């Protein structure tokens, strides 16, 4: 916000440039409009201040000091008229008007202040006279020998609406920009000073706690070190193991849960698996059906179904004994992800071997689930009214002993027909 002193400097600069360029006149309203446009602010509330500055710059000189005797002078006395610059012709009533033209050929004389006003009030009355009357009163004072105002300029520059020349407008604009930059630098300096701690507010070193017993301090220090060592990425950013079924989609054996969801949605969009009528519904293809064990799901159930295929990775200390036990005769170790039970070949029960009809006695769990779903899809065993329900045919009845089952129960029921090699069938 401009201060009154800065605004007065801008007004004075505007008056000087207008006079130097040979303008025809200037007025308070024109100054308000032109400076407001140049500075980019509304100067209407400052109109009275601008008018006062213009009066101080262009107005008449200060009124003479009052007579110390306190006597009143008759304005019609010949001696008074002679001191004011000669005899004054009487003005007819029809000629006493306030002319706004500065260059009129015969300006009307300024009406004298009535004699019944004290002499000390005449200076205040000058502010209530119109602009032409102030100029005429100044001419009378000059003729009487009064010194003119040091800011006086020809009358042609007083009362007009002459805009600033383009060069002066550019210079004034540069002044405004310079002022704005200075204000911004001052504001930044104040913010930096407020942010910096003062000497009285400088942080003190924390007072050392009372020294506990040596045993207690050693115990606390070891506990704090253990807590620090336990840190690391956790929660949704913790790297987890991925099941073989889900690994076929995301392409990595270990991944953070957030990255798994991101890759899964990329796979869904890439294969156009969203229902066109309901984007929140996912239509499963063969790969997703192995993961979710259903023909369709939605974005809310998908996170719950993913929990079956996301497993925490074993720590290094826990994985070393397992790696030693499962280490083959060769020198190449087996990672903890590769030792997942779903990746190991399992023994197939007689009923499941009869169902497949291939004579295989060992099979990975995911492969067994895939073959059962291939049988369901090829024989159209899904309930048309509810795709999550499987209507068992004779082979499935013989295998599972049920008339129907849910899509989520296929993998669980197959677990009863797959055994590890150490288990006796």
TrEMBL record:
Residues 78-93, 133-142, 189-203, 214-226 have a biased composition (Low complexity). Residues 235-312, 341-420 form the DM2 domain. Pfam families: SWIB. Residues 312-330 have a biased composition (Basic and acidic residues). CDD domains: SWIB-MDM2_like. Residues 63-116, 133-161, 189-239, 312-336 are annotated as: Disordered. InterPro entries: SWIB_domain (IPR019835), SWIB_MDM2_dom_sf (IPR036885), SWIB_MDM2_domain (IPR003121). Gene3D superfamilies: SWIB/MDM2 domain. One of its GO terms (cellular component) is nucleus. SUPFAM superfamilies: SWIB/MDM2 domain. PANTHER family: SWI/SNF-RELATED MATRIX-ASSOCIATED ACTIN-DEPENDENT REGULATOR OF CHROMATIN SUBFAMILY D. This is SWIB complex BAF60b domain-containing protein. It comes from Zea mays.
